[in-house]
Amino acid sequence: MFNIIFVALIILSFVAYFYFKTKQFRSVLPIRKKWYKAQAGVALGCFIVFFGINTCIIYPTLVGFLIGAVFILVGLLYANAQYKRARHEGRFVKEEFELNK
Fold this sequence. Notes:
The chain is mainly α. It is built from 3 helices and no strands. The relative contact order is 0.16.
């Protein structure tokens, strides 16, 4: 049951990653590009975390737990760093839009 939930979360985070990457490539304003890149990074970090949790569920051995723990740790650190970056650059997105009307 948990496997199905985490597979759905993995797919959703993967879709969110590609959505924000597409928005990044289509954007013209530089701060907005960085903001979309950071949001895509948050989605990628969530993907890695969910993948690590799913690994722990599928392979309930010591090796599975170690690999899952590494994925979870790396994903959390990456998602946290990108979230801080997105929050910082999000402050300037509206200002940049107003300046470039």
